[in-house]
Amino acid sequence: MKILVLNCGSSSVKFKLFKTEGGYAVLARGEAQRIGMPGTVIRYNAGKKKDIRLEKPLGDHCAAVDFLLSLLVNGTTAILGGLEEISGVGHRIVHGGEYFRTSILLDRQTRALLEMFGDLAPLHHPPNLAGIDICTELLPGIPQAAVFDTAFHQTIPDFAYTYAVPYRYYEEYRIRKYGFHGISHHYVASRAAEILQRDLASLKMVTCHLGAGCSLCAVGGGKSLDTSMGFTPLAGLVMATRSGDIDPALVAFIA
Asked: Is 149 one of the annotated active-site residues of the chain?
């Protein structure tokens, strides 16, 4: 089988194409950055083929996915005889709210349900949905799965995810700690247990996701018990473009 994994960010699209026979291996990878802005950059690598870097205007995420997939099947960059060789697509989805507690297969009903979380992730959610929609168009009939960044943190107990504000804000607006980077934290915890040759269910650990965005997660028995990010990815550690935790009185003081 050949599985396409797609990550549509606020201004970028990244993908990898895996083969699963005889263990996972990456057949190709690529990305488009600065989508919808001047100087869109595309990078592509397929196995032993030479790395490709080019600039091409791409107006939106659908155009970016369309172009990246065309590299897999057209001209000197092709490694597939056609897109029908792809057996499935996995999408990284930033927000599943409280509704999606695990990965799901996408269909019309689940795709419609995803519309509910646009206000919770306004920068990332529309590109996530665009990636699903263009794959439905370009790869008709091929199964697609959604994997949620928030799902791993749905095991955080209520005393840890509830903010010390009037409870009606949670009841009416679902304001609570959601946590992010869950896909990464889940993988890191599982990989650490594998390296330590220990049963994940027996371990207590702190996992670290450190990049332009950063978060920590307390993992016990293989489950997320608390995390540094909150209602949005702004909370927690200091990051490249996010302040992390600050005293909320600063806003009133500066005003």
From this structure: yes
